[in-house]
Structures
1.
Amino acid sequence: PAHLLVCGNEKGGSGKSTLGLHIATALLNKGLRVGVIDLDIRQQTMARFFAYRAQTASIKSLDLAHPRVETLAPVRRDRVSDVTHEERCALFRLLLDMRNDCDVVIVDTPGASTNLSDIAHSQADTLITPMNDSFVDFDVLGRIDPVDGTLKNTSQYAHTVRQARRERRRLKGTVLDWVVVRNRQSAFSSRNERKVDDGLRRVSMQLGFRLVDGIAERVVYRELFPLGLTVMDAEALYALDVCQRSSPSHKAACREIDRLVRMLRLPIDDE
Amino acid sequence: PAHLLVCGNEKGGSGKSTLGLHIATALLNKGLRVGVIDLDIRQQTMARFFAYRAQTASIKSLDLAHPRVETLAPVRRDRVSDVTHEERCALFRLLLDMRNDCDVVIVDTPGASTNLSDIAHSQADTLITPMNDSFVDFDVLGRIDPVDGTLKNTSQYAHTVRQARRERRRLKGTVLDWVVVRNRQSAFSSRNERKVDDGLRRVSMQLGFRLVDGIAERVVYRELFPLGLTVMDAEALYALDVCQRSSPSHKAACREIDRLVRMLRLPIDDE
Ligand SMILES: Nc1ncnc2c1ncn2[C@@H]1O[C@H](COP(=O)(O)OP(=O)(O)OP(=O)(O)O)[C@@H](O)[C@H]1O
Ligand SMILES: Nc1ncnc2c1ncn2[C@@H]1O[C@H](COP(=O)(O)OP(=O)(O)OP(=O)(O)O)[C@@H](O)[C@H]1O
Ligand SMILES: [Mg+2]
Ligand SMILES: [Mg+2]
């Protein structure tokens, strides 16, 4: 049955969609059957990316691997009780349906609190949470005491995940693997970045996530978006001669995404 | 009466709160009376920043200028008709109340579509929309034809602003000044960044915004967040000796924020 990977972070612009589409293309190019559920009905970054991909494949006659893509419309709400029965059913039915024709299903959630996003969090086998090297982003996980560095409060997104975990234990009995990854990291180290790193390591036990190596800020992670391609599509990029494939940044990007996929420890057969 | 400046962009993580708090502190340090309405009830980045500021002023015995800060809880919705009468009244009453004791009121909106955010957009005198140098961010404004560079479709956030403008003309008869500013710009030019810039210039007439000089990616724009300070708080930073005030990046940051405030052309008396 499909392994469910959810891209989650209530903080906007942390990189959920960007990492989601890079992981998806990496898995597709390994020959896996990938499903994508885009729960961000207004922006639909993932759905649009794969629409551009289909367009590029057709216009340029390229042999590209494509996932099965589905979008569902969440109704944003402020209380869990607002989840409607039909919405729950629609998502569960979709997950069941994709269970058999996909190896991995990637669910992209919006940068907001929605009922369907919560359900996705409670169904996830792996939850990946990207974040910026910033205490503005850190704040949705928890507040650190500026004096002694201990966790003073847990914030709304940590609560969302804790709630989802309880729901999951109740229904599935299996454990959620919560992976936090810093994204858009600067090439240069800074005192701020070391403080964020230190803060994350201190709270990882308490909040229940494991911290993996970060992903750098690289133009190549966004410049291929309109084409529906990523650095992982080496053959297509070669055929199109569309960006500096041999640049150090490009090779480093491929290695970073490969490493991220390995660190997710998805139950996929790898050579 | 107070000039209403709204920080808006449905795209998450574009820098609404970051630019909002920097503009607010710049205006406070010019001696203006500043009001802040934080409509992002879950993250409350602006409200927390000024709470940290009050804390720093008290703990370190610093003479810092503070704004009047208010938060209001929006109910997210999918149809305009879902705005409740009480919610509209609460926001209008607050705006009226702040009209007389503030020179500028800054409203921070969440990275999502909410009813109160829409009302704020229709009441704004100036709307500032930051965005990343990225077609992922561009997509919420419109789609560009990859072949001839013309605007193919307008997207959801462009519609939100257009709707707000109609509402405003109907109620106020005055014109909205929509300012778009690229944020988190890399120090290095790239083909991608030139394409985004070109795209923005092409659509600015049609969508009705003016494009101003961008703001660079600088650690100093986020590292002072936990202290409730910004580069514009020169005296406080001197007293605390808390970051490399004389670094080139620090001086460049001050100039960038000063320039941004000038380009907003707020009706404030300046020396
Ligand atoms: N590692 C990276 N390098 C360069 N640009 C990046 C990187 N990660 C994300 N971006 C850019 O940062 C912006 C935010 O990323 P993205 O849209 O993936 O975040 P998100 O969490 O999905 O946002 P939302 O909450 O709006 O759904 C986009 O403009 C994207 O192109
Ligand atoms: N010019 C900049 N230089 C460095 N970091 C920045 C800059 N602008 C924003 N950031 C960082 O980028 C992230 C997103 O910024 P911010 O939270 O202000 O965006 P937002 O539009 O308010 O997001 P949301 O939609 O979640 O409210 C934060 O971690 C912030 O510290
Ligand atoms: Mg997204
Ligand atoms: Mg914000």
2.
Amino acid sequence: MLHLKNVSRIYRMGSGEIRALDDISLSIEAGEFIAIMGPSGSGKSTLMNIIGCLDRPTAGQYLLDKEDVGGLDDNSLAGIRNMEIGFIFQTFNLLPRLTALKNVEIPLIYGGYRRGKGRLETARTALESVGLADRIYHKPNELSGGQQQRVAIARALVKNPSILLADEPTGNLDSSTGEEIIRIFSKLSHEGKTIILVTHDEAVGRYARRIVRLKDGRIN
Amino acid sequence: MLHLKNVSRIYRMGSGEIRALDDISLSIEAGEFIAIMGPSGSGKSTLMNIIGCLDRPTAGQYLLDKEDVGGLDDNSLAGIRNMEIGFIFQTFNLLPRLTALKNVEIPLIYGGYRRGKGRLETARTALESVGLADRIYHKPNELSGGQQQRVAIARALVKNPSILLADEPTGNLDSSTGEEIIRIFSKLSHEGKTIILVTHDEAVGRYARRIVRLKDGRIN
Ligand SMILES: Nc1ncnc2c1ncn2[C@@H]1O[C@H](COP(=O)(O)OP(=O)(O)OP(=O)(O)O)[C@@H](O)[C@H]1O
Ligand SMILES: Nc1ncnc2c1ncn2[C@@H]1O[C@H](COP(=O)(O)OP(=O)(O)OP(=O)(O)O)[C@@H](O)[C@H]1O
Ligand SMILES: [Mg+2]
Ligand SMILES: [Mg+2]
């Protein structure tokens, strides 16, 4: 359902260029649980941003459900992201002036869910599922690093997206809390969701059906 | 050299209170290499902020080299931090508009090191030691997550501080890059520096001479 063909992402800097991704070809079926691994700086987040329609390739083609994403304008890209894709960012990207509950409610608001008890309940349930029931009114700076990470996870899950992109979702979590998160992902995978997970943790990578390893912007 | 006696850190919120630290007593000798571990939300970063003079206890006493830190004003606290303590934050806290090189140079500038080749060389060497020689002119948003983490590490090391506080310094690093960082810490420890390291990674914790485990704001 998801095809990258000869995708490159190049940054021009001063006199040189950085090939963050270099001629990547990758196909992912609907419902797969795939882990992307590799050294720091090898291109994992760059690949996730392209898959998640947050960035465009410099060269090559990205087909999502047979649609050539490179040909879409920014509004259509935003539309795809809001409908289909839940994204957990490596650096969380929470809105600092909003509570955890409000941060998680934001995708529902943008998704046109009607204001009211139902919307709040959906957001609260997502936060409960990641163990934050007693932190829902805290702002990000009133939360620990791993709690912020879990708010970002709840926000990505709240609309039950068909594709979940998770960029190092357990990096700030102890092993037991991390396992709870990966169990949530496994359950979603069994329900048919597509899960693409970047991790540095081999133990986490093992939950995936397939591991794609990057090195210097290329698939190893 | 570092004594916490019955230290608590309490946040008042609405109708209740959160005991982020609850009656902690802990002594750390000069030159120790100690790991602080525990579940997400158990109080590790709060403890680090108090040890690093970035926060004050709500109750109890913190003696640093026999000096009662609680009695000092903000300027004196800032003075201690700049002179003695290198701090690697869980969320990096880099200055977004400055290059990696400039970010690492900042403590030298504040420390009164004279402008010139020597100061730049010191900053560059710190970045080389964490494998970022070819990224020194990148700004934080032009760096991967693990590269940002390593800039934060270089910045903490650049003045060769006698106390290094590292809050989850390998959370965004693959195991091989993470080991390089921990080797740097071990080397500093052998040179007599005091290293206090928060980690979720048992493998990293094993490098320390002693592990202190927190749970719900208390030492286990
Ligand atoms: N400003 C604040 N107001 C209210 N509660 C806070 C505040 N800052 C932290 N807390 C709470 O204090 C507790 C301890 O936070 P701390 O950041 O020390 O945890 P931690 O052990 O570092 O967790 P992690 O492993 O997730 O980084 C958490 O439950 C957190 O929600
Ligand atoms: N805006 C940019 N300009 C220039 N170079 C960039 C930019 N963004 C990223 N890079 C470079 O692209 C490379 C890949 O970055 P990416 O964030 O994809 O790595 P990563 O595999 O996610 O690393 P980590 O495990 O450290 O998070 C890095 O070497 C980085 O320095
Ligand atoms: Mg990354
Ligand atoms: Mg923390």
3.
Amino acid sequence: ILRAVSVTRAYHLGETIYAVHDVSLAIDRGEFVLVTGPSGSGKTTLLHLLAGLDRPMSGDVILDGTRYSRLSENGLAKLRREKIGFVFQFFNLIPHLTALENVVLPLRLAGMSPAQARERARSVLETVGLGHRINHLPGQLSGGEQQRVAVARALAPRPAVVLADEPTGNLDSNAGLALAGLFRKVNQEQGQTFVVVSHDPRLEEFADRVVVMGDGRIQDVRVRGG
Amino acid sequence: ILRAVSVTRAYHLGETIYAVHDVSLAIDRGEFVLVTGPSGSGKTTLLHLLAGLDRPMSGDVILDGTRYSRLSENGLAKLRREKIGFVFQFFNLIPHLTALENVVLPLRLAGMSPAQARERARSVLETVGLGHRINHLPGQLSGGEQQRVAVARALAPRPAVVLADEPTGNLDSNAGLALAGLFRKVNQEQGQTFVVVSHDPRLEEFADRVVVMGDGRIQDVRVRGG
Ligand SMILES: Nc1ncnc2c1ncn2[C@@H]1O[C@H](COP(=O)(O)OP(=O)(O)OP(=O)(O)O)[C@@H](O)[C@H]1O
Ligand SMILES: Nc1ncnc2c1ncn2[C@@H]1O[C@H](COP(=O)(O)OP(=O)(O)OP(=O)(O)O)[C@@H](O)[C@H]1O
Ligand SMILES: [Mg+2]
Ligand SMILES: [Mg+2]
């Protein structure tokens, strides 16, 4: 369903820094892939390339047969809206909208009616344990609560592919495991594809494959049960 | 050295939410205290009260005999600058300053010469593994790299008290343990007092005491070896 073909992303600050260096990765429909690796190894950069939030200097990304290099910015945004749910490493919630409104927004953009969107948003927020905080603004929520709102916003539209960047980084171990369990449940029951970046070694038991990054390259790929 | 006496902090959004509810905590000079507890249990709020970044509705905080309730905003800021190093949960780095400049700033405010401040800042950034990123702006760093800059900024002035909010939340397990080890080393060699909020259970082995928060209250206090 989603494939990176020899993608490279570098920055030029005096010297050239290769955040992602000649990476190829093919993700099957319905798969749950964990991406791990040291801080600064290129995980976030790779995830942004897979979501079309950033463009590679060379190589290409293909989602359901569509090549990102052939799409305009608008085309990429439309593809993302229809097929991808993204959880940013630092949430990117809209500060002046409540938790509920932040989750309703992508549903309304996808054409859902206001009443249906609120109902779906409320139910996903309750699933992540925030039923009692739905009318709070992001600034009135703790770090972990904001993170769970960001997760709810990505899951609510039931996207074909969920790309999540450290979704449990600010959660205590119970809430973190509960969230990973929720991903696995959605992955298995709805067949949605998950690519999750995490430093949490416990997530390995939820994944079909574990991709280990190092210095912008894929260093190792481990298959579960393999 | 640092004492919270029956502090309460609540928010009124229709209902009253007690983020911190009648909490008393005395921290000895040179102690290493870990604060843990579920997401939303009041850890960040308590740390902000201890740093004078937020004022309690009732109760008081006392640092080295000085009552926060007697101090003006300027007085609190001066006390913070002289005695406290703070690591924010989401870093609060100055976006248009490089990593080096972000760490130099508190040193210059403390009266250090430009050359000395740069030397000290460079050495602390190297200690946290960022010698190769000192001229990057926060937007040109990964999540974990930004977090390490925030830690370096808090440690550089060698403050009497270090208050750190999830300092390893965005780090891989090696970098996280290395940072916790650095805190412990500074705590034991320089006698600086540490209060660290973390969900990472491995930090318990570094702490003298573990304070467990729940629903705004202290639920449990465990002493190491106790
Ligand atoms: N400005 C605010 N208005 C209303 N409620 C707030 C506000 N700030 C925080 N809260 C609430 O106070 C509670 C405590 O928040 P706090 O940030 O201290 O939690 P925390 O223990 O640090 O959680 P985390 O581990 O998720 O960072 C939360 O339930 C939060 O919703
Ligand atoms: N705009 C930029 N300019 C220069 N270098 C950058 C820029 N953005 C990222 N980098 C560098 O690219 C490398 C990869 O960054 P990336 O954010 O992908 O790492 P990561 O694996 O997500 O790390 P973390 O676990 O700390 O979040 C880092 O070393 C970082 O310093
Ligand atoms: Mg990252
Ligand atoms: Mg917090």
